[in-house]
Amino acid sequence: TTNVQFNTNGSFNGSKNFTWDDSNARLSLGAATGFANLSVTGTTTPSRLFELVSNASSSLFAVNSSGLVSIGGTSTPQALLAIAATGTATGYPLLLISTTTAGNATSTAFIIDKNGKVGVGSTSPYGQLSVAGLLGAEQLTIGQAYGSSTFAGGVGTNGLDSSNGLTISGGAFRLNGSSFTSLLGTGLTNS
After folding, report:
1. Global confidence as pTM
2. Which of 59, 62, 78, 129, CA to CA, is 20 to 30 A from 44?
3. Which neighbouring-strand residues pair with 80?
4. Which residue, 170, 172, 177, 176, is CA-closest to 189?
5. How many CA atoms lie within 13 A of 78 on its CB side?
6. Contact 32, 20 (CB under 8 A)
């Protein structure tokens, strides 16, 4: 392992914290020994370990010495992965995961748009959570404390009994303009 030489006011210098390991082809910054092809070692306190910037005040990507990562936001991330639609990235989704078919066509599998709305199978979520396709859940509570909810395409259950059916509490179920407040036997009771 040898120190990388650099020019300091016309003379060459080296640093034990900027080294090249020729036998393993490893460049190390911040430590005398590299552990990968490119090793960057920071301090023990959260500080900027690695950062890409567009200018002195706009961080595009940052990793601190605790392993916290920031994309498009601050150089001091506050989560394991912090994504922000700030600076030059405004107007783009915060996160987009696509699938590709054999014909190289892509479709959106998951998106968090610039406003924080989540879409599954949708490119344009219209609610805080939009799911295009079937939704499976052990239990689903919709509209609690917000008034009413609308189901486009209808509601299906796997049997209407007390253990795995449709429960109506504190409101009514509307069907073709009629309100229903209870389920009796195999049918609905209109009240």
Report:
1. 0.56
2. 59
3. none
4. 172
5. 3
6. no
